[in-house]
Task: inverse folding
């Protein structure tokens, strides 16, 4: 059981709207602030349901807010940076720490949200713990090259097509970096637009590039290095991955994070037959993995003083 409190808070010039899901029948409790996957910016996204339905009954509060430019929150998501999103999360932490019933605040980041969560933790000493779910250890550009190869492979295309598609993606990235002209790259996209493999390669729809690349989200994030800030993190950290993740190079990410972790209190969990959003992919179960939810709850229990 839980109670829900509507909360509005400010981050610089933006107004953000969220909900705090509170455990019932306890005087104090820890809270996780949930940081969003790239395409799940609204607090009502179905993925977040398992957190607000599972954790409060175990004595853990959950705060979920509409990301800037999403849902009721003001702002422009398309032109904000990771630092902007991190500052929004910091504002949420400051707001929650003013509540007497909250023991401590930790962060839960899913996918891109894991990058934001680790960035916030590197900026703010009083984040109590960090949970990174399906978070790549490589840059967004390298992540999408990986996702392109997997997408094409699963669709049955040849290695030659995979290489052709990734070469084209690299040229698109070169345009955003200012190394190739828009007209040249767009002409290459137009030549391949009718190919059967094009929709599987995460290339621009209709083969069009923005005239002003600074108005595109990709310009601000493609070369972000998640390891830079992770090296500075000293709080207890839980990494969670699904073996069937088609967006993240799971084994490589675990290897890189393990090599760079400076904190001894880091745990890595990897689940077979589980995808990017912790859904079961075999016939033994449906929906969010019960094993994932059980281990998440058990790990969080160490931060509850009750």
Result:
């Amino acid at each position: 059981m839980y109670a829900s409190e509507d909360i509005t808070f400010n981050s610089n010039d933006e107004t953000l709207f969220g909900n705090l899901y509170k455990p019932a029948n306890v005087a104090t409790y820890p809270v996780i602030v949930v940081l969003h996957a790239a395409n799940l910016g609204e607090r009502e996204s179905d993925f977040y349901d398992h957190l607000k339905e599972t954790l409060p009954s175990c004595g853990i509060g959950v705060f979920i807010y509409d990301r800037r430019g999403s849902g009721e929150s003001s702002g422009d998501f398309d032109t904000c940076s990771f630092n902007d999103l991190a500052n929004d999360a910091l504002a949420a932490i400051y707001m929650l720490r003013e509540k007497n019933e909250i023991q401590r605040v930790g962060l839960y980041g899913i996918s891109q949200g894991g990058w934001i969560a680790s960035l916030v933790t590197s900026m703010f000493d009083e984040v109590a713990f960090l949970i990174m779910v399906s978070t790549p250890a490589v840059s967004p550009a390298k992540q999408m090259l990986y996702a392109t190869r997997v997408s094409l492979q699963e669709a049955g295309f040849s290695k030659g097509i995979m290489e052709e598609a990734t070469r084209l993606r690299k040229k698109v990235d070169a345009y955003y970096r200012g190394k190739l002209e828009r007209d040249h790259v767009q002409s290459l996209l137009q030549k391949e637009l009718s190919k059967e493999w094009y929709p599987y390669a995460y290339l621009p729809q209709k083969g069009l590039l923005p005239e002003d690349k600074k108005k595109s989200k990709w310009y601000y994030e493609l070369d972000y290095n998640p390891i830079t800030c992770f090296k500075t993190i000293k709080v207890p950290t839980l990494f969670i991955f699904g073996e069937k993740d088609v967006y993240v190079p799971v084994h490589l990410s675990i290897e890189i994070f393990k090599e760079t972790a400076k904190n001894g209190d880091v745990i890595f969990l990897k689940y077979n037959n589980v995808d990017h959003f912790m859904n079961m992919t075999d016939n033994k179960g449906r929906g969010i993995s019960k094993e994932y939810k059980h281990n998440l709850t058990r790990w969080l229990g160490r931060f509850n003083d009750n």
Remarks:
- The two ends are 17 Å apart (CA to CA).
- Residues 159-176 form the longest helix (18 residues).
- Strands lie at 2-11, 14-23, 29-35, 61-65, 102-110, 130-133, 237-242, 266-271.
- The first strand starts at residue 2 and ends at 11.
